[in-house]
Amino acid sequence: MKAAFPYMGTAPIALDGLLRTLGAEVVLPPKPTRATIELGTRLAPETMCVPFKITLGNMVRCLEAGADTLVYVTGSWSCRFGYYGRLQAQILRDEGFEFRLLELSHDRIPAIINEVRAMNRGRISSAVVNGLRALRTGWLKSTSVDETEACFRRTMPTASDPGACRRLLAAMLEEIQIADRPAAIKQVRGSARERFAALPTNGRTRMPRVKLVGESYCVVEPFINFDIVARLGEMGVLVDPFLTAHRWLGFHGFRLGKDEVLRMRALSAPYWRYCVGGEDQNSVGQLLLAAQDRFDGVIHVHPFGCMPGTVVQPTMAKAARDTGIAYLPLSLDEHSSETGILTRLEAFVSLIEKRHRRENGK
Ligand code: SF4
């Protein structure tokens, strides 16, 4: 089996490790570019949200690279995400591609177990052992990526050479990707703090803090959000994304972090009673939490054409006004311009820096 799956941020590093340990060959697409988004936009229905278009473009690249099985998480949710797999498969077959669609959903667990068994030549004992090894590898890689990215976010605002900080992140992610034994993965994870701490600093001791909230793909994928975490880091801002690739896999893949979901539901209840998707309830709750924790601002990223993301925006603005926290909504799609987004970010940073200095007596 040559498997490919939709691609988001650094999540493929863990998923690649997990599937390879299970016995599958994995075809990873090149990172998204303008060409990927243009390809997806040409094939997708016009009003579809931008994550659909980018992942569709990715899947074409994977099929061209030899993938014969496309793996999707599918289901029935309030937004379109649960239908991505079936709709993309239909579009790709209409384009003449031949492949097998493998749907991962709660009601297909026996079929998924059979797939794992088939990858292990029908032997249940090997399937169980390899399944456990695969979960361990995936978990170790995912936590290692998360720890490395957290070190990067903390270091970037104080790095005297942001380029060196970016290069270290890229090098460490590659090391995690190629590490194939648990000890090697742990070794990279264990070295993250020390390696980032060794980078020269610019002497800055205080920095504004911004919470990044919004739709999962826009928060986690740097291509669509114009690398917002690193860009703000270069401007001296510490960014705390409410979701990372690791947390996304935990929340949505393995239903971890239920307490946090319940907490966000309770916090957001005065403003937002029902979850309609697109991390709407989480975003409102996280904005209120950021205000309580005295963050300097909240940036809300969502795709243009994303129903939940668009509908929740006025509520986010109201909650921000009520709590007095600075709020910047950014609607993203294939037409968004880097210059336009950067200009808005610079203006926002200038505003929160002024407030930060005023409130900290400097
Ligand atoms: S949350 Fe929005 S962008 Fe994401 S799949 Fe649903 S509708 Fe599309």
Question: pLDDT average, as an integer?
Answer: 91
Radius of gyration: 21 Å
**How much of the sequence is in beta strands?**
5-15%
Number of domains: 3
CATH class placement of the largest domain = Alpha Beta
CATH architecture of the largest domain: 3-Layer(aba) Sandwich
> How many beta strands in the DSSP annotation?
8
How would a textbook summarize the main sheet? 4 strands, parallel
CATH fold type of the largest domain = Rossmann fold
Sheet/helix structural class: alpha/beta
The low-confidence parts are: none
Query: Which word captures the global form?
Result: globular
Distinct helical segment count: 15
Please explain how this structure is put together:
There is one protein chain. The chain is of the alpha/beta class. It has three domains: 118 residues, Rossmann fold; 68 residues; 157 residues, Rossmann fold, CATH 3.40.50.11900. Helices cover 58% and strands 11% of the residues. The strands form two sheets. A four-stranded parallel beta sheet has the order 2-1-3-4, with helices on both faces. Strands 6-5-7-8 form a four-stranded parallel beta sheet, with helices on both faces. α6 packs antiparallel against α7. The mean pLDDT is 91. Bound molecules: iron/sulfur cluster. The site of iron/sulfur cluster (SF4) has 13 residues, from α14.
